[in-house]
Amino acid sequence: MKKILISAAAILTIAVPIGNAIAQPTKVTSNFARITNFSEFPKGIRHMSTLRHTLKITISEQSNGVSKIMIEAPDNIKLNDNIDVSNQSGEKINAEINIDDKKKATLTFSEPVPPGTKLTIEMNKVRKLRATRGEMLYKVFANFVDSNQAVPVGIARLRVN
Known about the structure:
Layout: H1 2-15, H2 20-23, E1 33-41, E2 50-59, E3 66-72, E4 77-78, E5 83-86, E6 95-100, E7 104-113, E8 118-128, E9 134-144, E10 150-160
Antiparallel strand pairs: 1-2, 2-8, 3-7, 3-9, 4-8, 5-8, 6-7, 9-10
């Protein structure tokens, strides 16, 4: 009888559901901007190809507006000045685009992008210089209004299998 009680207690302990809070993602808060998504189209292409890389950045409600965004490409990627920038409503945002050595894109906005904006940056006609396997890492920085210092926004990571 004692073994049955111990077995039943062990089974009930294992069967007790774990609280919902463990499975729920926490809300990320930031006083700056952060990368919320990064994707490649067509997806999962390892060989040399012309692609579109899409980067999504959310500017915090608590931050100043953004005047400039800098994107540094990985070693095996060549950037093109065919870059489209839009907000969460799909409205185009005017930006002067400067590509340095096909490796670094600087987007200077004609008017600062206001806090609370979700930017979509579509880097069209991106070229892979060689077959890619593993991770591609883009470094992203932003300049905020009233600041000349570039602040790291994050690293956009794309895994190619």
